[in-house]
Amino acid sequence: MEEATRKRIIAQLADRAVIERLVESHIPEAWIGLDALAKDLGVPADCIALSSSLAELTLSAVGSVLEPGDVLALAEPCRESWLRGALACGGRFLDVGRDHRLRPMEMALHRALEDGRVDAVLIEHPAVLGGGTLDLPDDHDPFIFVDQSASVTPEVAVDSGVLHLGQTGGVAWVVGTPERLALIEGDDPIQGRSAEDRADIESMAEALQGSRLLCDQPGGVALWARLPGVLGAELKRALQAQDVDTRRRNHPSWREGVALVPPASGAIDSWARAIAEALSSLTDAE
Question: Half-sphere exposure of 82 toward its Cβ, with a 13 Å CA cutoff?
Answer without folding.
Answer: 30
